[in-house]
Amino acid sequence: MSKPKGDKKRWLISQIELETWLDGIANARTLIAPRHVSGIMLYRQVAKSKEIAWHGQAPGSSNAFRPLLSVKEIFFPQTERLFTIQKTGQEIHLKEAFPDWETVVFDVRPCDARGVKLLDALFLDTNPVDAFYARRRENTTLIGLACKELGPTCFCTSVGGAPDDSHDVDIMLYETDGGYLAEAVTEKGRFLIPSGEWKETTASPKQAMDSGQFPVPKKGKWPEHFNDEYWMRMSERCLSCRACAYVCPTCRCFAVRDEVLAPGEFERIRCWDSCAGENYRRVAGGHKPRAEKGERLRNRFFCKYYYYPEQYGLGTVSACTGCGRCIEVCPVGVDITEVLMDLEKSA
Question: What is the tally of structural domains in the chain?
Answer without folding.
Answer: 1
